[in-house]
Amino acid sequence: MTWLVTGGAGYIGAHVVQAFRDARIGVVVLDDLSSGHEEFVPDGVPFVRSSILHTDVVARTLDEHNCIGVVHVAGFKYAGVSVERPLHTYTQNVTGTVSVLEAMQRAGVEAIVFSSSAATYGTPHVDLVTEATPTHPESPYGESKLIGEWLLADQGRASELRHTSLRYFNVVGSGAMELRDTSPHNLFPLVLEALAQGRTPRINGIDYPTPDGTCVRDYVHVADLADAHVSAAKALAQGRELLPVYNLGSGDGVSVRQIMDTMAAVTKIPFEPTVAARRPGDPARIVASGEAAARDLDWRMSYSLEQMVATAWEARQAAQA
């Protein structure tokens, strides 16, 4: 029983691969290394360097490794940059997903877990986002992820495809010292890099209608997230009925100020963040319920904020050793 993980050399994808191996499920990785790292792929895991846009390669990989399903993590994941590069974003995320589905159809593979995003919701005007919250993406990235969900649903109606999509918010931490978030846009690596270089991290806006005036967001440890992908894959392989979409959320969230305070405590680098103006379009609070995923996928958050920061810091330090 082998699964193909597209984007399996990236930060999230590599943790998904690790979770599959921990569950003793066979896995093969396909990644073009545009943002991933070949060294993230464990020894003994077959690795195919290719873009998901190369349908023939994807189909051949599925055939050669007798794959029964796909965890589709590959994609262009930078929401802000997607506004400047919409055509690139749609090519990677929409055309790329079409290519994966076409390859699956050719190879007779009928199960897929799709890495979606909370960006599909845009700026929801509710205290707690659920799967029933209307979608209103506000970037080409968010739009492309929503279209990906539509593609799965349409192909499911037209064929025997079994599928589910996992929407998540801010993914942080590390599940292994050799795996870390190298994104130039995410909060955790930005703050930790600033501290490591002796610079002072920055908070954008301290006058939001939240308990401490800073934005409140959902943060999920990457290892918990990876486990959800494995649970979903197992359920699909067993023929269990799943919802088309699940949120992976904390239910309460944490503020940017709380993160900064925790960063200082864990790293033992005392600092007072500089304060800048709000960034346009930043909502005060976005927090999601994970109740449906807990019910159907037996999913739980097992890492505290301190552990999220500590594992991210340890992985960052290990990379520089």
Automatic annotation (TrEMBL):
Annotated source species: Occultella aeris
Which PANTHER family does its entry note?
UDP-ARABINOSE 4-EPIMERASE 1, UDP-GLUCOSE 4-EPIMERASE
Cofactor(s) needed for function: NAD(+)
Q: Which InterPro entries match?
A: Epimerase_deHydtase (IPR001509), NAD(P)-bd_dom_sf (IPR036291), UDP_G4E (IPR005886)
Q: Identify the SUPFAM superfamilies for this entry.
A: NAD(P)-binding Rossmann-fold domains (SSF51735)
What is the designated name of this protein? UDP-glucose 4-epimerase
Q: Which UniProt keywords apply?
A: Carbohydrate metabolism, Isomerase, NAD
**Catalytic reactions of this protein:** UDP-alpha-D-glucose = UDP-alpha-D-galactose
Q: Which family does it belong to?
A: Belongs to the NAD(P)-dependent epimerase/dehydratase family.
**Which Pfam families does the record cross-reference, listed alphabetically?**
Epimerase
Q: Which gene encodes it?
A: galE_1
Q: Name one GO molecular function term.
A: UDP-glucose 4-epimerase activity
**Biological process terms in GO annotation:** galactose catabolic process via UDP-galactose, Leloir pathway
Tell me the pathway: Carbohydrate metabolism; galactose metabolism
| NCBIfam families reported in the protein's UniProt record | galE (TIGR01179)
* Annotated ranges, domain NAD-dependent epimerase/dehydratase: 3-249
Enzyme Commission (EC) number = 5.1.3.2
